[in-house]
From TrEMBL:
Organism whose genome encodes this protein: Hymenobacter fodinae
Key words of the record: Signal
Superkingdom assignment: Bacteria
Protein name as it appears in the record: VWA domain-containing protein
Pfam families found in the cross-reference section: VWA, vWF_A, YfbK_C
InterPro entries: CLCR, Uncharacterised_YfbK_N, VWF_A, vWFA_dom_sf, YfbK_C
Domain VWFA: 165-344
Signal peptide: 1-20
This protein's record includes keyword Hydrolase: no
UniProt keyword Transport present: no
Amino acid sequence: MPISRLLPLGLLAGSLLLPACTQQYSTEQATESLPAYDTAVASEVPAYDGASEPNREGYAAIAENHFQSVSQAPLSTFAIDTDPASYANVRRILTQNGQLPPPDAVRVEELINYFQYEYPQPATAGAPASLNAEVAACPWNPEHQLVLIGLQAREVPTRVLPPANLVFLLDVSGSMNDPDKLPLLKAGLTQLVREALRPQDHVSVVVYAGAAGVVLPPTAGSDTRQIVAALDELEAGGSTAGGEGLRLAYQVARQNFNKEGNNRVILCTDGDFNVGEQSQEALEELITHERQSGVFLSVLGVGEGNLQDATMELLADKGNGNYAYLDTEQEAHRVLVQQFSSTLFTLAKDVKLQVEFNPAQVSEYRLIGYENRALATEDFTDDRKDAGELGTGQQVTALYEIVPARTALMQAAAINKPGQTSAVGATNDELLFVKLRYQEPQGHTSRLLTLPVPAKAAPDIREASGNLKQAAAVAQFGLLLRRSAYRGTASYDNALSLAQSALGNREDALRQEFVELVRQAASLDASSARATPTEERRYR
């Protein structure tokens, strides 16, 4: 049965094209005024032939963070980011393709944040998160130290979370015809509808190919059968009017805006926007404008061969949302069902971390990853500056590699605390000072959390907690895959040993899988080295 039969006849009469400008939200506007999706329009465009296309996956170039001198730049500032996309994509390339991933596909902070760590819930009443820190010797450079900073968002039972106004925006163009694209998305969203959606939630379905249209108007979460039926009928074919689809999805979300709820568009695509607005600048401008309405954007990426990872990461960052890559139905279940709350419900927005290093204790530091989330020092106190979002129960983990101060000639400096400024001659008993700023989901004024980290002897990494050992193992794995200039003495054997030590007797399927990924990467890397002339080898 064609998709158009799912819609009232009145919907089919609307134009398939939206005006160039975005309409302002109005409660008087009716969903019936929105265009319906007509499969005949999409079918006029020749279907994408995956077999004839070269691999043209797109990744943003990453310029790794350098070591910074504390005397010159004592403050390190960045926006939080826990998108799981890079890890799942790297896993796909290693296991399904049997290849080492392109270095720019490896965002080390996303690999680290794919895993759960044992951080305590916030003890302060009203605080959205707890701040935690730990220090140990750096496993790939014993003369350095590794600092873990962990953020644990408050757990909120799903049943008491505000109602959700969700718009599923699905790319049904010809490039989505492969089994690991549209069929995988339909399976994952069906799991969400059947296992996580609540009666108070509402779902709309918008699709785009040669044009965009509404497949399902806002429907209560209790009407599982109707939502699933709308998803089942979707078929791929045509070119990709991505900008058109985004405009329409935002319009649907704004027309059904819930002032007390969670309003979100979930874009499902391989990121191949080849019709209409397709430049990152145009898409960024659209989404930056739309987020002011209170509608956030999350992105689910799928497929291989033409995966536009850079575009999808940008959209999620600018849309106050998150970006996940789905390589299997198990990953879809993890992201959309098991992590329903943290993925789709924002506890705090524009969350920024700033670390001030004590020059009496630290001479240099390097933030591992977060290259595309770096902020200027003054951005930390600028509440107009966009930053990362924190979901309920979500965790954020960051690692710094630091060079301890080695000379008594370094002058002591106070750590900048709320209401104070750094001053020479203060105490030297702190290694660093962590500050976090956040805003309420619908707020505009930031609040501050702080954590002093005392200076003390750093234990060997083997004596560190399971948290730090796991994070260090994953970071080392990422540095090797990235061919990082800062990998030092890193090795797959070392990463494997740390990962196995962190696992212990735990029945953790994801950590057990990681151990196997390290082995897979080590084998592929060894094979690559044997097949490559010595002067072109990755490691020497």
